[in-house]
Design a protein that fits this description.
By secondary structure, this protein is of the alpha/beta class. The protein has helices spanning 18-27, 45-56, 66-77, 81-90, 99-115, 132-141, 158-173, 191-208, 222-228, 253-267, 293-302, 320-337, 352-363, and strands spanning 30-39, 119-128, 146-151, 181-183, 212-218, 275-280, 307-311, 341-344.
Length: 369
């Protein structure tokens, strides 16, 4: 006799509700805030003055006694500098607005496209608009699970990266539900970043065949560098203090700039005599990190250099400091000396290799544990 064994019916898996699906999808979403320095709303002197007041009132930028900073700003800088800066901005202003903001918006759109729907990418400026507060709150209201902050400053400085991150933390700390925030680290020697600048520069340098290349970075007061020294006995106190990254100078902007330069020299096949590291945009009478870009021009001319190329690897987007300060003013100074040509190598802007490099850095930034 055959005994039939009946298998109990298998219960069907419940169909997830639309609400559960949405919650699961949201839980995987990451917000990204790209942060750059900032720009005035227009070339009107009043807008430039407003921007400079916010920028230069930051104690991480002008790190002196508050009373001294107020006097310097209100009696020396703001009465005269806004008109001069407004004139400079007019010489580079694009149809869509400030170059820094235009390139930043294009970067945001391309990074959003590269990262896909599981990310929401926004752009903010440390000073001016769009503000960090506005865009950080926008990401939180979008109900992302976590937020990655990407300061667009390759080399760390308290005046740029530090100030931007402090502002982010101040805004986040005011929220009832403080978001989970991770940060893209300084990427001064990141392989993708170096490859991106190499991809921009190599075709131009190969065509120009310049006599010399200047790697010009934004300057800082020497005291900023020394305050970043964790030992107080290394930065600008030890010979060749920036030749390698060690514990004492791991936060040193100048050391980061030299590390970027060494990496670029390797990928661009520049020998030691083919390039010079220098620093631009100094303000005031206090000593800033050396050598100074403007002082290198006559020295190079005296050495017989006639065709000069300048890269600005502290800036990932073209802006006042690249297009106007180097591409216009430095070029005029060079030609007045008798130079044949000065070529500004464009910044990364929205170059495809940079889009990939930045997106990869964002993807590998892990959530806080």
């Amino acid at each position: 006799m055959t005994t039939e064994v009946q298998t109990p019916p298998v219960a069907a898996s419940p169909t997830p509700s639309p609400l559960a699906t949405t919650e699961s999808s949201d839980a995987r979403r990451t917000g990204v805030l790209l942060v750059n320095l900032g720009t005035p709303d227009s070339t009107d002197t009043r807008d430039v003055r407003r921007y400079l007041r916010e920028f230069l009132s930051d104690p991480r930028v002008i790190d002196i006694h508050p009373l001294g900073r107020w006097l310097l700003l209100n009696l020396v800088i703001l009465p005269f500098r806004p008109a001069k800066s407004a004139h400079a901005y007019r010489s580079i202003w694009m149809d869509e607005g400030s170059p820094l903001l235009v390139h930043g918006r294009r970067l945001r759109a391309e990074v959003q496209k590269r990262l896909g729907d599981n990310y929401t990418v926004e752009l903010a400026m440390r000073y001016g608009q769009p503000s960090i507060a506005e865009m950080l709150r926008s990401l939180v209201e979008d109900d992302v699970e976590r937020i990655v902050i990407a300061p667009l400053f390759p080399q760390y400085s308290s005046a740029a990266s530090g100030s931007a991150l402090k502002r982010v933390m101040d805004v986040a700390g005011e929220m009832w539900n403080v978001p989970d925030i991770s940060t893209v680290s300084p990427f001064y020697d990141d392989e993708g970043f170096i490859d991106a600048f190499t991809s921009v520069a190599m075709p131009i340098l190969s065509k120009l065949e310049p006599d010399h290349v200047l790697l010009s970075y934004h300057g800082l007061p020497e005291r900023h560098v020394m305050k970043s020294d964790t030992t107080g006995a290394h930065c600008l106190k030890v010979e060749n203090c920036c030749d390698t990254i060690v514990s004492a100078n791991r936060h040193c902007y100048r050391a980061h700039c030299f590390a970027t330069s060494r990496a670029l020299a390797t990928t661009l096949h520049l020998s030691e005599g083919d390039y010079t590291v220098c620093f631009q945009s100094r303000l005031g009478r206090d000593p800033w990190i050396k050598p100074y870009t403007d002082e290198q021009l006559p020295l190079l001319f005296e050495r017989g250099v006639r065709r000069l190329a300048i890269m600005c690897p502290a800036f990932v987007a073209d802006c006042l400091e690249t297009v106007e300060e180097i591409g216009i003013r430095a070029k005029e100074d060079w030609m007045a000396l008798g130079g044949e040509s000065l070529e500004l190598i464009p910044s990364l802007n929205d170059h495809p290799v940079w889009i990939e490099a930045l997106s990869t850095m964002i993807e590998r930034t892990r959530p806080n544990s």
